[in-house]
Design a protein that fits this description.
There is one protein chain. The protein contains 18 helices and 22 strands. The protein is of the alpha+beta class and 496 residues long. Its cofactor is FAD. It comes from Aurantiacibacter rhizosphaerae. This is FAD-binding protein.
Length: 496
C-alpha cells in the first residue's frame, strides 16, 4: 500500500476557516464539506487506494481558480487538482489535509478555428466531445484513450494520455499547441497558442504530463486533423503470442506506420467477443488489430503488405473490414476490453509500462511465468505498435492478501519493463502507483533535477504533494551548496 504525506494538524484545525474563505471565493454550491458528499472524491480510477479529502472546491471561472490558489498559497494549504477522476495511477488521490480543486464545471468549447485547424477548449470537456464538435466538417482530435467518453482534456494533459491511434498521430503532447495555466500563487500564464512551436523555452512540453504538480490548466488549444480519405482495419489471429509480437516488429521494420496496432491475448479476446460480438476469432492465442488510413490505393497496398508479413509470422486468421460499420465494430471490442475483463475476476489492476517492440515476445512470456508465480491471472490488452503494455492483473480484493500480491506482481512487471530498455509509464502517469519505483529508472541526480523544476513552479510544494517523487525534498535542500574548509566547489561560477 502507498504512503501519503503526513497530514498537517494545524491545517486540519483550520478546516472551518478554510471552508469559509473558499465559500467566499466560490459561493453557492461551490464548496463541498459534508462527509457523504465528499465520498465520490476519495479516489480516482485506481480504486484500490482511497483517502477522504478535507474539502472540495468547484470553481466556475478562471478568476475563481486564481483566487483559490492564491488563498491556498498564502495560507500554506495543499491542493490536489482533479479532472474527471479517471486516472489509473492515483494521480488525483486526495490528501486528508488538502483541498481538491475540481475542474468539472469548465466544460465549454470556446472556439473552433478551422482555418488554423485548432479547437480552444476548457479542461473539463471530454476527449470524445472534441471530435464530436468537429466531425461534421471532416475533422477529428487524434488522441483517443479507451476512456475518451469520460476522461477530460485537462486530465489528458496532466497524464499525457494516448490511445489506439497514437502510433501514427502522437500522444497528447503532440496535439496540444497552447495552454492557459494558473500557478500556485494565483498568476495566470499563457504558454503557446495557435502557432506551432513558439520561440523560447519549451514550457508547454514541461506542462503536458506534469500530473498537476506545476499548476492548474484552465484553457487548452488543441490541434485537429482532417479525417483520412479511407480507413480500414484488419484482424490478424495467431496461434502463438510470439508470432504476433514478431509481426508487430516486422511491420514497423518494413516502414509501415499504421494508424493503430493493438494486441490482445486469449483471455482478453474471449471477454471482448462475449461482451461486444465484434467478430474476433476464438481459436487463437493472440489477436492484432491493425488499421491503415490514407488514400484508398495506399490502404489497399499496405493491407496486402501487412497480410503478407502476418502470414510469414504464422497468422492463422485474417479478416479485413469491408465497410465503416465493420471497422468500428473491430475497434468496439478493443475499446470495451477493459470493462469486459470484469467477467474474469471481481477486481483487476491495470498496469502501464512501455518496452521496445522487439522485446514483446520475451516480456509476454515472462509475464506468464509471473502469473504462475503469484497465482493470479493476467489478461493483456495493449498498444502493440509503440510497445505500451496494459496488462490487467486479476484478483479478488475480498480475499486476504490478494491485493498485496497484485501490487507485487505489478511492481515486477514494471521493473521488467525498465530492465529490457523501456520506461515505467506510457500514458497513465506515475501518480502514487509508480512513485516508489522511480529510482528503478532514474538516478538520485535525475530525480533531484526533476524536483528543482517543481520548485521553480511551486516552491512550497503545495500542488499535488506525495505524487511522482519517492522522496520529497524541501526546495532549500535541493538548492544548498556543500562548503568544505570555508570554500565551495568551483567558486568562479556565478551563483543564483
Amino acid at each position: 500500500m502507498v504512503c501519503l504525506p503526513q497530514p498537517d494538524a494545524e491545517t486540519l484545525a483550520r478546516r472551518e476557516d478554510i471552508r469559509a474563505a473558499l465559500c467566499a471565493i466560490v459561493p453557492g454550491e461551490g464548496v463541498i464539506s459534508d462527509q457523504d458528499e465528499l465520498r465520490p472524491y476519495e479516489s480516482d480510477g485506481l480504486t484500490a487506494y482511497r483517502q477522504m479529502p478535507m474539502l472540495v472546491v468547484l470553481p466556475e471561472t478562471v478568476e475563481q481558480v486564481s483566487q483559490v490558489l492564491r488563498y491556498c498559497h498564502a495560507n500554506k494549504v495543499r491542493v490536489v487538482p482533479r479532472g474527471a477522476g479517471t486516472s489509473l495511477s492515483g494521480g488525483a488521490l486526495p490528501l486528508s489535509d488538502a483541498v481538491v480543486l475540481g475542474l468539472g464545471k469548465f466544460k465549454s468549447i470556446l472556439e473552433i478555428d478551422y482555418d488554423n485547424r485548432v479547437v480552444v477548449s476548457q479542461p473539463g470537456v471530454t476527449n470524445l466531445a472534441i471530435t464530436e464538435a468537429v466531425q461534421d466538417r471532416g475533422f477529428h482530435y487524434a488522441p483517443d484513450p479507451s476512456s475518451q467518453i469520460a476522461c477530460t482534456i485537462g486530465g489528458n494533459i496532466a497524464e499525457n494520455a494516448g490511445g489506439v491511434h497514437c502510433l501514427k498521430y502522437g500522444l497528447t503532447t503532440n496535439n496540444v499547441l497552447g495552454v492557459e495555466i494558473v500557478l500556485i500563487d494565483g498568476d495566470v500564464v499563457r504558454i503557446g497558442g495557435k502557432q506551432l512551436d513558439p520561440a523560447g523555452l519549451d514550457l508547454l512540453g514541461v506542462v503536458v504530463g506534469s500530473e498537476g504538480l506545476l499548476g492548474v490548466v484552465t484553457e487548452v488549444t488543441l490541434r485537429i486533423l482532417p479525417r483520412p480519405d479511407t480507413a480500414r482495419a484488419v484482424l490478424l489471429g495467431f496461434p502463438a503470442v510470439a508470432g504476433a509480437g514478431k509481426c508487430v516488429a516486422d511491420v514497423i521494420e518494413a516502414g509501415i506506420i499504421p494508424a493503430g496496432m493493438e494486441m490482445m491475448d486469449k483471455p482478453a479476446i474471449e471477454c471482448a467477443e462475449a461482451f461486444v460480438g465484434a467478430g474476433y476469432p476464438l481459436d487463437v492465442d493472440a489477436l492484432l488489430i491493425v488499421e491503415l488510413d490514407g488514400p484508398a490505393a495506399e490502404c489497399d497496398y499496405l493491407i496486402t503488405e501487412v497480410e503478407a508479413i502476418a502470414r510469414a509470422n504464422g497468422a492463422s486468421f485474417v479478416r479485413i473490414s469491408q465497410n465503416e460499420e465493420e471497422r468500428l465494430r473491430f475497434w468496439a471490442g478493443r475499446k470495451a476490453a477493459f470493462p469486459a475483463t470484469g467477467r474474469l475476476a471481481p477486481d483487476y489492476y491495470c498496469m502501464d509500462g512501455t518496452i521496445p517492440r522487439r522485446r514483446l515476445p520475451e516480456v509476454l512470456e515472462r509475464m506468464g511465468a509471473m502469473s504462475a508465480k503469484y497465482g493470479l491471472g493476467i489478461a493483456n490488452v495493449f498498444h502493440a505498435g509503440d510497445g505500451n503494455l496494459h496488462p490487467l492483473v486479476l484478483y479478488d480484493a475480498n480475499q486476504p492478501g490478494q491485493l498485496e500480491k497484485a501490487e507485487a506482481f505489478g511492481e515486477e512487471i514494471l521493473r521488467l519493463c525498465v530492465e529490457v530498455g523501456g520506461v515505467l509509464t506510457g500514458e497513465h502517469g506515475v501518480g502514487v502507483e509508480k512513485r516508489d519505483l522511480m529510482p528503478a529508472m532514474f538516478s538520485e541526480v535525475d530525480l533531484a533535477h526533476q524536483q528543482r523544476l517543481k520548485c521553480a513552479f511551486d516552491p512550497d510544494m503545495l500542488l499535488n504533494p506525495g505524487k511522482v517523487f519517492p522522496q520529497l525534498h524541501r526546495c532549500a535542500e535541493l538548492g544548498r551548496m556543500h562548503v568544505h574548509g570555508g570554500k565551495v566547489s568551483f567558486p568562479e561560477l556565478e551563483r543564483f
